[in-house]
Amino acid sequence: MMALFRRKRSRADDVEERVEEPAALSAASADSGADAPAEDQGEVEDEASDAVGELIGPWDLEEEPELGSRVDLGALRVPKRPGLQIRMEVDKKTRRVVAVNVALEGSALQLQAFAAPRSEGLWQDLRGELAAQVAKQGGSAQERTGPFGEELLARLPVRMPDGRTGHRPARFLGVDGPRWFLRGVLTGKAMVNEQHGADMEAIFGDVVVVRGGQARPPRDLLPLHLPGQRQQPADSGRPSLELPRRGPEITETR
Asked: For 18-35, how does the pLDDT look when each residue is reduced to its tens digit (9 = 90+)?
């Protein structure tokens, strides 16, 4: 089945397009008023718009071609926020930038973008792989539905300074776009404070992915660069979708 890569600016638009889809492609069509008269469909759209409001990205470059108030980091354009700190994660051996870490008021969000197949996404398979990886290391993870679709709520194992084992909560967000996959990992205050969580979700939802036209194998990390620098040359290495390193966090001890 071919994946549908669409993110609309309002739930009303989203409902309208789902009404037009064949039932075989979207079970949601049956619930969105596909068989109802035109005036009834309009009522469904108005109710959806009032109840849910704006639907955020992340965006593809074709959807948001202008840089606007974002920082150009190569494959990712990250929105600016007052007090936001951006740190680039660099592989010590290759000196290649492999991730973007943004921090705001005690919350952290790691961002990575990968090449994906043209006809299907990666997130469905990757959720299972990440959950297995977390469990193997002594943590736990469970799927749930969030603002960007299915996500993983995890407890990652950490070693405390006194030698005890602790766990830090994390949320793995994933969005399949047109020939790209964006992963975000939330840690810190965003895991325990609703407003902090909403603020970081808004940042993730305003990211623009610059896929580029170069042919790349699935899961190949899209190239990043430091702010103000030109894009790095292609690298044959393929960093894995590993668990994030420690940053600002809330840690549980037992």
From this structure: 323 333 323 333 343 434
Provide the pLDDT for residue 221.
Answer: 97
Q: One-letter amino acid identity for 138?
A: G
Distance (Å, whole) CA 190 – CA 201? 9
Residue 208 has pLDDT above 70, yes or no: yes
CA 1 to chain centre: 22
**pTM for the full model?**
0.74
Smallest CA-to-CA distance from 126 within 174, 166, 158 is with 174
The alpha helices in 137-213, defined as continuous H runs, are 194-205
Could you write out the three-class secondary structure of 68-117?
A: CCEEECECEEEECCCCCEEEEEECCCCCCEEEEEEEECCEEEEEEEEECC
Beta pairing, strands 85-90 & 252-253: unpaired
